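User: quick one - fold this with manganese (II) ion bound?
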Amino acid sequence: MTMVTNQIVNDWVKEMAEMTKPDEIVWVDGSKEQLEQIKQIALSTGEMIELNQEKLPGCLYYRTKPKDVARDEKRTIICTTRKEDAGPTNNWVAPDEMYAKLSKLFDGSMKGRTMYAIPFSMGVVGTEFSKIGIELTDSIYVVLSMAIMTRVGQSVIDELNAGADFTRCLHSKAQIDETEKYIVHFPEDNTIWSINSAYGGNVLLGKKCLALRIGSYLGKQEGWMAEHMLILKIENPQGEARYVCGAFPSACGKTNLAMLTPPEYFREKGYKVSTIGDDISWLRIGSDGRLYAVNPENGFFGVAPGTNEKSNPNALKTTHKNTIFTNVARNLDDNTVWWERLDKNPPENGEDWQGNPWNGKTSTEKGAHPNSRFTAPAENCPIIADEFFTGEGVPISAIIFGGRRAKAEPLVYEARDWNHGVFIGSAMASETTAAANGKVGVVRHDPMAMLPFCGYNMADYFQHWIDMGKKMTNPPKIFHVNWFRTDENDEFLWPGFGDNLRAVLWMLDRCEGKAGAVETPLGYEPKPEDLDVNGLNVTPEILEKLLKIDKADWENEIKGIEEFYSQFPDLPQEIKDNFDRLKREVEKM
Ligand code: SAT
Ligand code: MN
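Assistant: Sure. Structure tokens for the protein plus manganese (II) ion:
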């Protein structure tokens, strides 16, 4: 590989190495040969395990420490000079104080280890969307995962040598001491420091840290948006392509929606779905006044449990080669992997995610951690769209906000206009999942699914959404969905998965003025007959339940929104107006 000649880069790497004191520094060029050599080191030390190379070629197994299994929001910090710039929903510490504290923890943290320097790009190098980063790490798991999740290679080094600015990402697993774990962002310095974790979301710094937290901060300044959104391509029987983005909190089915298989009835009609992204979108306004999106990532870091031939056959196929499995169960008989709901055939001679002997047929304990993951190259996905590879933006027709809600939220509704949609996104709530440490199943507000990922003051972020709307002559329509509504017996009312396409097609028809709707206090809802439920066992009564808006539930929602908003002294007027209108309309119900 060509040397890095950019003096700013070399000075920074030198400074970081003087602090962390590794035995040596290795630049990662992304070549197959080098990655293979690095992998062999991880296999020889036992850091990673090679899986059955006939059944799972190129696949590796990795286990984290038992308390290092998810993102840690309490230990995720935004360090801006002024506390107000981080806002009420982020943890904040003054930059000087945090640098001083972390410098002590990083001091000598790589002694006896190799520091890998990984130059990477989020987005296709050379496109308008691309942003360059360098991650310094002492973890081979991070090296191999970044090589899947981001674009690593000579072209990135060329950009750096041509003087490109870059995000300075420093990671050390140190002692993986959870009492000294920190995931820290210095947006004003374009810098991320993460220490004492080895779990993906905390250490693959291109992902949530750069592409969302630093990305959202840069987007505000530079006039674009970084969002926690999948990108889906839908082609109708005439072959016309439409694109939608969807924001859902972690572990609420983004990967499933992004890779959905249309119900047979729609496949026969000629509908086709392909995937552009499953987690993060970067969005810019095009010269035609529309909003364009790319997926800045190069792979999928998906939740394993629940992924199966029925729920997401495309994801399953995506993981059959060159994939890293983290914290799933292992089948010792054939050295493959297993997780809950993969199939009805758990290993008898297995190991659970912590490495304990585990018999899936008799044990009452879970084999895989609920937040166990696969890290798989996007190019493996059988339905990956061509547009993914070009990295040029695709024009977005609809933005979908959604959460996991047993009650209150109906299946689907449409915002009256952009600002109403921004209000809906800002007020959304969802039940917590295993993707972050803490209690699971508690309803919490999670605006635009960005609560853990917004790198600056959330009220300013709402304002940025409003401002972006003002700049678009042809903005996407905004919708809200809830696939997770339950009946009196706590059973899901909606089949979900591939059938979610039915709601998406209603949305696309709305965008083209073709589908019916009725105005409600929440926005426009389909009438039961507006949704195509052909071939589906959903009765009109069930549809009615799915679409019902209950006054008492919404009085309660309003209280929740009021309480959530109370932490923001200055919300945009457009949001206040839309909230006031909701209150008036619910009152009138
Ligand atoms: O752990 S990650 O943050 O990368 C995945 C997620 O929680 O959405
Ligand atoms: Mn996510």
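One thing worth noting: The radius of gyration is 23 Å.
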